[in-house]
Amino acid sequence: MKKDEIPQDPGALAKLTKEVCYAVDKDGNYVTELSSGWDVKATALGVAWKDIEARVEGARQKVLSKESSPLLFFMELRLMDMNILAAYTGFWKWQIKRHMRPSVFEKLSESKLQKYASTFEVTLDELKTMKVNEG
Amino acid sequence: MKVNFEHLQAAHCENGVTTNLLRTIGIDKMTEPLAFGIGSGLFFIYIPFLKINNGPAIAFRTRPGLIFKRTCESLNIPVIRKKFSSREAANNFLEQCLRNGQPVGCQVGVYYLTYFPKEYRFHFNAHNLIVYGKEDDNFLISDPVMETVTTLSSYELERVRFAKGALAPRGQLYYPKEHRPVTDEQVRHAIRTGIKRNVRDMLRIPGNIAGVKGIKYTAGKIRKWRDKLGLPKAGAYLAQLVRMQEEIGTGGGGFRFIYGAFLQQAHGYIPDDRLLDISKQFTASGDLWRTAAVQASGIYKGRLSSQQDFNTMSDYLIEISELEKNAFTELSKLKLTT
Lengths: 135, 338
Known about the structure:
heterodimer; A: mainly alpha; 2 strands; elongated; B: alpha+beta; six-stranded antiparallel sheet; two-stranded antiparallel ribbon; 11 helices
């Protein structure tokens, strides 16, 4: 990449910082230069987030149709998977799978629910109703 | 308390932490490309059956932690590295280091890293930063990918040091144990070791999923993605490839440009002009990776959709594989004894 070809497109990272790129100057020597972003990768990140939004929405529908408990919704909303959720809550994966059944979820003790609520950073009420600020 | 420390921005977090920690013990000649090359950072691997964020597991650099370890080892600098089971012990140890005037490298998770933009906060646990002081309840943080220094409250820092999931940091911290002078001869030796090890990793690693063979393997996979996964998912997979290749930390072109810069700087220590020529080959490879990224973006933006477009993408990777095979073969033939 040539120094004057380093893209300076807007990107999400630009809110925080410009990033260092390596490129060659007109004499062929490597130099570093700051870049605000590149459209090609900004779109790639956008694709990842669109995928996440679809998964969250899919989970929400599953909860509404009683196929799953709200845990599935919050797991997707917080970009987690079974392994990560198990690590943060201290439950086993098979327990979490059980807790994702609406009938089991409804009978969970307050203390178990609180573990999930703390992990997802929501209140018990929000955990049960899925009414939460998703921003 | 605040220790003597100079923040220098880097492309990649581990390169930056390594460079900045070594500079604080007086090794002013350390640069990001040198740390990356001496640590044999350039790599490629596609791990089938493993999914990361529901996409393919692809890496353009070596395993986290290795660059710091190898660079210090090659320069004969002893290293302290500690993990903790207790959060309190982890914090006490860190504060003790700071009281002793020692800036400390920490492995952290990104998801709860409050100063990162939301779009970048995934459950990725192999980010690195330096803690160089504490004022009231705030730790002073040098995150090498950022232009300026920042702070984290003690709660925020503890949280990212004890992030959970794959590669959980478990409070891990590290720093060079003692101040030792490093001669140019030692740097020359370290450069040779770094290059040899990188040649081994890219050309001679067993199996077909890693090194230059791994790039070819990925080319074969991409050719089949359209039929096997359907267009939307194939596009998402390509987007993930591009993110691994270009997102914060690679310096562009999947670290190939940093490696090109390393070979140029190596020439300053070992004046063999073939290094400059091979550096150009890595520049060409990085450029081709970026050309491939543009092709991939045509697909995930929905502008390109035919099998021919996937074939073109695949052909780029085959060409890159050949290019890097030649470059590393030439590197392996250098008798870097001067």
